[in-house]
Sequence to fold (94 residues):
Amino acid sequence: YQDESDRVMKYDATYYDIVPDQRIVYSYEMYEDGARLSVSVVSLEFLRSQDATTLVWTEQGAFLDGRATNEMRKGGTEWMVDNMTEFFAAQRES
Fold:
């Protein structure tokens, strides 16, 4: 996608393990204007209780050539989690 500052961003992922309602394991690369920014490995675990589900997000990233930072990744991850929270809240209400 092209962001507000005309950078072309690319997210390229490979999913290795998906167990519904339990876990997702994948790796991904992030690109900016064709240059690889980072490579990450992620596991998402969904821990269910009677009245809630806890998401355990574990990520290891390699930030290449100083073009990305842990703070940038943290901000992007928080944005995704916030959007998921809004989506699931809307699903409960409908």
About this structure: The chain has a mean pLDDT of 90. Residues 22 and 46 are 5 Å apart (CA to CA). The chain has one helix and four strands. The two ends are 30 Å apart (CA to CA).
